[in-house]
Amino acid sequence: MKISEYKYKLVKNWKELNQLITYCKQTGYASTDFETSGTNAMYPGSIPTILGVSFQPGGAWVIPLGHKDSSFQDEWPSVLTHFGREIIENPNIVKIGQNIKYEMNWWRKYGITMVGRVFDTMLAKYLLDEERPHGLKEMVDRFLPDYSGYDLPGQPSNKADIDRIIQFWSNVPLDEFCKYCALDADLTFRLWIFFERRLIDNKLYSLFRNMMMMASRVLSEAEYEGFTVNRDYLKGLVKDYKIKIIECEKKLRSNPIIIKYEKTRLKGIKKRMIDGVQLEIEQFKKNNNERSIKSREEKISRYIAGDYTTKKEREMVEPINFNSPKQMIDLLFENPDGFKFDIVKFTEHKETKKETETP
What we know:
Nucleotidyltransferase, domain 5, about 55% helix, six-stranded mixed sheet, 3 domains, 8 strands, single chain, alpha/beta
């Protein structure tokens, strides 16, 4: 579905805001989604720009807050707290959200505490299936494919530079922004219907309600309030453990099996590099390209002498990387010159060993 095709209701005044509140109370549900100028509520100077609210599947209303084109302008904090007191702090309203502790922290920033029954679609997905991804867009792609791909043009990823993220989300036109936010709230509501039934059918609903959602409240508060850190002690630990890690790695690399494996491995890498250049020489011979042939012969001489000049060449002959799953699989299980530990269990596609048995 194209984002431009989605219909939503924009709240333009206090009368329409109170109408939205009435509808939420009538249905007993409020699926909410904040769009903000920053990455989280704790980021200095960040504000909520709009709030999407769905009280029934199939539609959503949007309350403009700190957006530059908001109809509420300077009174948006009062609008937000009014909706929060009437709906978010109302124990009779079921609150629905994706990664809802994020929403909790934005409400907390404005003195609103989320009470009553709360449902996080991200946590529900995780409990039913712990395999990633758990993001809203990915879940929509999987479970609601008709609405797949409604990202805004040029939308940066969550891993992008913070200044770029703020710049983008602070300048999205209101109408386009509202459709995006409304879809988030509406589709989260639909996912709630989908997941709640499955939690009940799989006898996981009690666990979800009584442990995961309660833990989410605690984590949200801890994330917002933070905790005291002894910086000097922490810096000391970083320094001490850096030395310990270097010492442990040095001891590990002195292991006879690893030494033998490393020699064989580097010998094999060098052979493959030379063989690759030999193939290039054969191709150049067909064209009588003497200059290129001479250049490749000099490269082979360098390889034989252990002289690697380019970044790519040096990376190829680097010592074994203990942080590389692929190299560890080869060292621990597959290579005859490695440890040759027994393989107890494979993944479904036999790509990575999940469990090992050591002597």
